[in-house]
Amino acid sequence: MQIIVFAPHPDDDLIGCGGTMAKHLQQGHKVSIVYMTSGDAGSLKYGKRKMTQIREEEAQKAANLLGISDLHFFRNPDGYLEFSRDNLIKIISLLREKQADFVYIPHKRDSVRDHVVTHELVVEACRRAAGPWFQECEGEPWSVDNILAYEVGNPIQEVSCIEDISQFMQVKLDALRLHRSQIEAIPYDEAVKALNRYRGIMSGQGDYCECFQLIKTRIPYQRN
Question: What pTM was estimated for this model as a whole?
Answer without folding.
Answer: 0.95
